[in-house]
Amino acid sequence: MDVVEFGPMTDEYRHALEGDEFDPFDVAGVTLHFRAKERHVGLRDASGQLVASTGMVLTDVDVDGERFPVVGLGGVIVSATHRGRGLGRRVVEEALATAQRLGPRFAILFCHEDRAGLYRKLGFVEIPDDVWVQQPVGHAPMTQRTMWISLHGPSTWPPGEVIVRSLPF
Q1: Residue 122 host element (H or E)
Q2: pTM of the entire structure?
């Protein structure tokens, strides 16, 4: 598999990854507005077809009054024909390597509980405090798990309420 980095998700890439799946991210019942990712890390198979992708954004968070930048990961997807081969893990690992070069101390992501195990195996830790995300009419509580990982050696996520200064990603 070749690792590729690209900007916003195109319709062509989206179709290659999602196919005809109705709701590949299981967000149909989520009432939050989500942000488009500015950059992506993907995996291409030997034929050049995009088969996995993770979106990335840079944003700020406030934790107990302290503001700092984070890399937000989201939209992790593996095409249906390539699932079960460890490509979800690999594309997130590649995205984390890219995130390290961007500078922030932490990366965060939002996920459903049934997917949290994969991220725990990669070193992500759940944020135990309330997490609020920006929405068109103010802030709303994040209803999915919010997890963090250090991008630069051992570190601890600060305690306290988290306000993400962005739509969720």
Answers
A1: none
A2: 0.90
